[in-house]
Amino acid sequence: MLEKMTWREIEADQLANLRKPILIDVRSPCEFAAERIPGAVNIPLLDDQERAEVGTIYAKEGEVTARRRALSLISPKIPAIVDSILSLKNRDSALVVHCWRGGLRSEAVATFLTIVGVDCWRLRGGYKAWRRMVLNDFARVSLDDLRFVVLHGRTGVGKTAVLEALRDRGQPVLDLEGLSNHRGSIFGGLGLKEQPTQKNFEGSLWKQLQDLNGDVFVEAESRRLGRIALPDFMLEGIKHGRRILVVGSLSARVERIAASYAGAASEELVQEVLALISAPAMIERLGKERAMHLADLVRNRNVEAAVSMLLQDYYDPLYDRYIKKNEPFECTVCSDSTEDAAEEIIAFTGKSIARSSACR
Fold first, then answer.
1. What whole-number distance in Å separates Cα of residue 196 and Cα of residue 179?
2. Residue 124's CB: how many other CB atoms inside 10 A?
3. Alpha-carbon distance 175 to 261, whole Å?
């Protein structure tokens, strides 16, 4: 005889108290894609088409008729849904079921699980409550809690690579470009997969922040990374953080950038680059003649020459103004060797003594 089980409710801010929680999001796939709790697994009660159908019935015929139609769609799926959830469970994990706002969908699945003798939790308020907790936490972040050590520098000096080297050495790092899947410039999305939604970016950022406090290494960023907007507390942290200038030789910068795009030189990508070059703002900054020359380099796949021209004629003048605005810097390191740069930064932040190995 099955042991009698029941489901219990848990608040969003109590999830961290559970041992190895497995979050089961029972919303439709399109809801899950737009916004989700990091690490959650989508096991939908209704697919996107079914959800739209039930919503239409609700609007036209009322709640009772809509619920009856939803029940007819869900009933044949119950064994498969339960089996999918049970395949994720292990002895040490706690199952947490949720939907949008802790309504009928999560209640139904929690009930299915208890019927077959599986203990589980139900997230009170659903994803909506978790999202509210994230925004409240962002509003409470203090510069006393997180003190950013900010890497500044021209395009191509390898600030992201230096951050990776710092992380490999056990240093606390927040890689905003990695989280946003964007390099933070006009060409920053080329060759990369689609960016996350704003809400999913903020969810991933919140999750990483749970393990960070004190001094955290981060790259200097503007408000937007592609279509992603940084939260105000991040911008304030970058603005008031300790400043380190990363420099590098032109040859190393060109080589680094050319290598990062080498695997993405498809015809589609070339056409995207040409479209960006022909944009009025780019032509205004470069001048028509130089823009045409740059376009010819791209068409001929002369990547290194195109990158060198972009750096010297477009990016460097922009970044140099930003760098000058943020002077003075506490430390300057050369990133032609990212490993050496990381070691110098660690030494500097540990001793608080300005050092310089600027590339000659």
1. 8
2. 16
3. 19
pLDDT value of residue 351 = 52
Q: Residue 325: count other Cβ atoms within 10 Å of its Cβ.
A: 8
pLDDT digits (tens, 9 = 90+) for 267-305: 666 676 777 777 787 787 788 888 788 888 878 878 888
Question: Stretch 325-330: mean pLDDT, rounded?
Answer: 92
From residue 169, alpha-carbon distances to 172, 223, 225, 273 in Å are 9, 28, 26, 36
Distance of CA 147 to the CA centre of its chain: 20
pLDDT at 2 over 50: no
> From the CB of residue 97, how many other CB atoms can be counted at a distance below 10 Å?
27
**Torsional sign, CA 28, 29, 30, 35:** positive
Burial (CB < 10 A; 0-12, 13-18, 19+), residue 77, is: middle
**Which residue bears the tokens 């950013």?**
148
As annotated, the active-site residues are: 99
Kindly list the structural domains of the chain, giving each domain's residue range(s) and its CATH number in brackets, ordered by start. 7-135 (3.40.250.10), 141-351 (3.40.50)
Q: How many CA atoms lie within 13 A of 146 on its CB side?
A: 26
Contact between 151 and 217 (Cβ < 8 Å): yes
- C-alpha torsion 348→158→231→31, nearest 10: -140
